């Protein structure tokens, strides 16, 4: 019973995202509109689709997974990222999501997409310690930390 309720809640959340923000990075569920977080690379970077797709697969939500899969294969492109992205968020939501999807499905296009994300993140790791900077400007490839971080 709990499992079915959780699946029901996932379908509800997925449909809310689809109805109000499909293809954008997030939805504002109460406002029922796009939540455009610059840290995900701008409006056209589908953070929610990639982040949710492995959960859809694991839950056996085949139709919903296929919608996500097809969107990722056709539309996800790191070259669409604009502004300054968060290295942490990009790593956990895009890179982690794509690698999880590959581990579950063995579909090669997920590896190709993950490689493009990893390559976009590389400038952040060009530091004396190897510990990455927190942000990368996608146009200039300049990496820096948040201003509020101790010592920049």
UniProtKB/TrEMBL annotation:
Cofactor: Ca(2+)
Keywords carried by this UniProt record: Disulfide bond, Glycosidase, Hydrolase
InterPro entries named among the record's database cross-references: 6hp_glycosidase-like_sf (IPR012341), Glyco_hydro_47 (IPR001382), Glycosyl_Hydrolase_47 (IPR050749), Seven-hairpin_glycosidases (IPR036026)
Single GO biological process annotation from the record: carbohydrate metabolic process
One MF annotation (Gene Ontology) recorded for this entry: mannosyl-oligosaccharide 1,2-alpha-mannosidase activity
Domain of life: Eukaryota
Pathway this chain belongs to: Protein modification; protein glycosylation
Keyword presence, Disulfide bond: yes
Gene Ontology cellular-component annotations: endoplasmic reticulum; Golgi membrane
Pfam families, per the entry: Glyco_hydro_47
Entry EC number(s): 3.2.1.-
Similarity comment text for this entry: Belongs to the glycosyl hydrolase 47 family.
Protein name (record): alpha-1,2-Mannosidase
Species in which this protein is naturally found: Heterorhabditis bacteriophora
């Amino acid at each position: 019973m709990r499992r079915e309720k959780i699946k029901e809640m996932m379908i509800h959340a997925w449909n809310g995202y689809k109805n109000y923000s499909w293809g954008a990075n997030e939805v504002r569920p109460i406002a029922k509109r796009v939540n455009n977080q610059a840290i995900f690379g701008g409006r056209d970077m589908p953070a929610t689709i990639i982040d949710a797709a492995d959960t859809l697969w694991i839950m056996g939500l085949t139709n919903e997974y296929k919608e996500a899969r097809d969107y990722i294969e056709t539309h996800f492109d790191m070259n669409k990222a604009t502004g300054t992205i968060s290295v942490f968020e990009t790593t956990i939501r895009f890179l982690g999501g794509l690698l999880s999807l590959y581990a579950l499905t063995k579909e090669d296009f997920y590896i190709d997409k993950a490689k493009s994300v990893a390559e976009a993140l590389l400038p952040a790791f060009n530091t004396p310690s190897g510990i990455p900077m927190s942000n990368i400007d996608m146009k200039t490839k300049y990496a820096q930390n948040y201003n509020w971080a101790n010592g920049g």
